[in-house]
Design goal:
The complex is a heterodimer of chains A (92) and B (507). With 92 residues, chain A is α+β, with helices and mostly antiparallel strands. Chain A has a single domain (1-92), classed as Alpha-Beta Plaits (2-Layer Sandwich), CATH 3.30.70. Chain A has helices spanning 49-53, 82-90, and strands spanning 4-5, 24-25, 32-33, 60-61. The longest helix of chain A is centred in the C-terminal third of the chain and has 9 residues, at 82-90. The model of chain B is unreliable at 1-28, 360-366, 426-432 and 501-507 (pLDDT under 50). In chain B, the strands form four sheets. In chain B, strands 10-9-6-5-4-2-11 form a seven-stranded mixed beta sheet. Chain B is globular, with a radius of gyration of 23 Å. In chain B, 33% of the residues lie in helices and 17% in strands. The chains are: A alpha+beta (92), B alpha/beta (507). The interface between A and B is medium-sized, with 23 and 30 residues.
Chain lengths: 92, 507
């Protein structure tokens, strides 16, 4: 059981110091998770720490390749409402 | 013109409000420097971001050692990096604390005006406390004359005030965009707090609480606090007046309201959603509205998180890691040059202040009334100034990349802001493009009636005049404020200021 960082990672470094298992390391072209060390924070924290601070939707996935931060989860705007909200905001 | 009123000192001392500004939190413009306590004046006199006067003379740099952030702002996107883009949150190369110290020493050796190292990102300095404080500790060992400074979103401020104080940090900037969580929910989609991501209104509530607590703790320790606010039309525009009142009441030193930067190509939420930026007029109106309660910063250039140099310039490209590695530096000689320059500037400014205050009769006090009761003699005039620094008119019109905008009126000359332009003449064959660049510059100077510069060519002279902007090269190497007032008085004497304000172009 381990999380993965994929290529939309922007190397902002926020996750690395938070990992309780020290499973995250700097690499090229982006940070990586050592699958042998990652516990998905089970028993440590309610939520995986890396995915709780990552600013990029979709950059951290589980073993099923499911995004921990799916589209809309970080902007707060579900994709279905994007057009409507955009119209509202551009009218300001 | 201010009305000097001579009065008996004993009467004046009995609690009457003295003229000028005697408020302890006052201090942006040159005139305001006079009202500061010695301690505060010492703190701001060579910090370009805390003193309008100092920004003419001193340079700063930002070390990009803090990549991580613990909140998301809808106007920020840290993934985009372009060396031609100048806005907060953008950097070209991330530095380790060791690299940052090396670069700072190289900059401080090449630019003797360098007086401040700030850490402003590209994320948040206090979301990267080890990297931030290691940089401060190492630099303080090698160049104790350089002031240290941070700019933070405030979330982790209460937790770190003690350590900031230990590092002898005298200046902290907090970005406070709201004091109402409902407004905050439109600006911050989430924060990372106590090992959890918190969203929406609850997130804004925690952030606001921490910012306000941090502000109070800093003020209690005598650390000067500047509050930055991003003006977002339709979100916090009216609300910022309340923000200004509250931070002033809590003892913030200076308030800097900056216009939102939101372009789709920056990839920010606001940029992608078509949130507009405020017009120059909207910004000025809000700054003016806040001014009654709070000292407003008008000289901010919204610089990158790795900016280097005087506020109007960015010399970052001269100090890439590769170039810094190759430099041979005599650090002792560099320190001596910096100290000598600071002494010279301090003496110059002291002489200027003494002149402004002389002559004074013994046991008498000069009280200046800002708003005389007699009717205004002439309307205020906007003037664009080409300057390379030192507070004087010392730049060729064609070499200016930005103009400072001053308003001259009966009350004196005051800085309103700056306007960026393209270089009209770069001295090579790109001059073929001169005409269209000049047209753009003239547009950028809309609303100004005078442009003060050291020199100007015949061609731009004619076109500026045709556009209603009078070029003036007669005050080269003179103090900006004195020259602006001399030109204003000349206009007044020749009857040019009798025409109603509606007859001139909008600023």
């Amino acid at each position: 059981m381990a999380l993965k960082i994929i290529d939309s990672c922007t190397n902002c470094c926020a996750c690395e110091p938070l990992c309780p298992s020290k499973a995250i390391y700097a690499a090229k072209p982006h940070f990586m998770v050592d699958a042998g060390k990652c516990s998905e924070c089970l028993g440590e924290f309610a939520d995986p720490q890396c995915a709780s601070i990552c600013p990029i939707e979709g950059a951290i996935v589980n073993e099923m390749n499911e995004a921990l931060n799916p589209p809309g989860s970080l902007t707060g705007i579900p994709p279905a409402r994007w057009v409507e909200v955009k119209a509202e905001i551009s009218a300001r | 013109m201010d009305l000097p009123v001579i009065t008996d000192l004993t009467k004046a001392a009995s609690g009457a409000s003295f003229g000028g500004c005697s408020a302890g939190s006052c201090g942006s413009s040159a005139q305001q420097m006079n009202g500061l306590s010695d301690d505060v004046r010492r703190k701001v006199q060579d910090h370009p971001c805390y003193s309008e006067e100092a920004h003419h003379y001193f340079a700063r740099m930002h070390a990009a050692v803090a990549p991580a952030c613990n909140i998301q702002c809808n106007y920020c996107n840290r993934k985009y990096d372009c060396s031609n883009e100048s806005r907060p949150g953008v950097v070209s190369e991330l530095l380790t604390p060791e690299q940052a110290v090396k670069k700072t020493l190289a900059v401080a050796a090449a630019i003797p005006q360098m007086s401040v190292l700030g850490i402003a990102g590209p994320g948040d300095p206090l979301a990267n406390p080890e990297r931030t404080f290691e940089t401060f500790r190492k630099l303080a060992e090698k160049a104790p004359d350089i002031k240290l400074c941070v700019s933070t979103n405030g979330l982790m401020l209460p937790a770190h005030v003690e350590e900031l104080s230990r590092h002898n940090i005298e200046h902290v900037t907090i970005t406070i965009n709201c004091v109402d969580p409902d407004v905050g929910a439109k600006i911050y989609p989430w924060i990372f707090w106590k090992n959890k991501r918190i969203r929406g209104r609850a997130a804004a509530e925690i952030l606001i609480e921490q910012q306000q607590k941090g502000l109070e703790m800093l003020v209690a320790r005598g650390i000067l606090v500047k509050v930055n606010s991003v003006l977002i039309p339709g979100v916090n525009d009216e609300h910022l007046k309340e923000v200004s009142r509250i931070v002033k009441a809590k003892g913030a030193f200076l308030h800097n309201v900056m216009p939102l930067i939101a372009e789709a190509e920056h990839g920010t939420f606001y940029g992608l959603m078509g949130q507009r930026s405020p017009s120059g007029d909207e910004l000025k109106q809000l700054q003016d509205a806040c001014e009654g309660d709070m000292n407003m910063m008008r000289h901010c250039r919204q610089c990158r998180a790795d900016a280097v140099g005087l506020l109007g310039e960015d010399r970052g490209a001269e100090f890439t890691l590769e170039k810094v590695e190759a430099m041979q530096i005599d650090h002792e000689a560099a320190l001596a040059r910096r100290l000598a320059l600071r002494e010279k500037v301090a003496a110059e400014l002291e002489a200027k202040r003494a002149l402004a205050h002389a002559p004074k009769a013994p046991a008498m006090q000069v009280i200046t009334l800002h708003r005389p009761a007699k009717p205004a003699l002439g309307r205020p005039v906007l003037m664009a100034v080409a300057t390379k620094g030192s507070g004087v008119i010392n730049q060729h019109f064609g070499h200016a990349r930005e103009f400072l905008i001053y308003e001259a009126s009966e009350a004196g000359a005051r800085l309103l802001g700056h306007r960026k332009t393209d270089l009209y003449c770069s001295g090579d064959d790109t001059c073929g493009d001169g005409e269209s660049v000049l047209a753009r510059t003239i547009r950028a100077l809309e609303g100004c009636e005078v442009v003060l510069c050291a020199k100007i060519g015949i061609e731009p002279w004619g076109q500026l005049e045709a556009a209603g902007i009078k070029p003036n090269g007669e005050h080269a190497m003179e103090e900006i404020e004195d020259a602006a007032m001399a030109v204003w008085r000349e206009m007044l004497a020749s009857g040019k200021l009798a025409t109603p304000a509606t007859a001139r172009k909008r600023a």
